[in-house]
Inverse folding.
């Protein structure tokens, strides 16, 4: 259950990142409100996952999934570059997150 909560917290973290991109430096009200809401919700859910997972593992997986999700959506939605080196770095984050999942199983 803790891993499921961690996944939910990570997905909400991705929503926060996308909302903040659309907020355009806090100049757009509703995306800004969404960014704050998703940030608080993500940390709230993360704290419940951390009750049953090591803090370092939970935090690293949370930020890793969030980083990969936002980087991927940046490529798809915002035209961020998808260079081989960038994709390779994203793949390394995925390997690290998967590795932590199985080390702390």
């Amino acid at each position: 259950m803790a891993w499921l909560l961690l996944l939910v917290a990570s997905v909400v973290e991705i929503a926060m990142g996308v909302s903040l991109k659309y907020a355009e430096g806090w100049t757009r009200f509703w995306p800004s409100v969404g960014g704050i809401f998703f940030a608080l919700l993500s940390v709230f859910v993360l704290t419940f996952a951390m009750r049953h997972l090591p803090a370092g593992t939970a935090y690293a997986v949370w930020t890793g999934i969030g980083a990969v999700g936002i980087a991927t959506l940046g490529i798809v939605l915002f035209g961020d570059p998808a260079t081989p080196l960038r994709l390779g770095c994203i793949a390394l984050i995925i390997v690290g997150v998967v590795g932590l999942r199985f080390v702390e199983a």
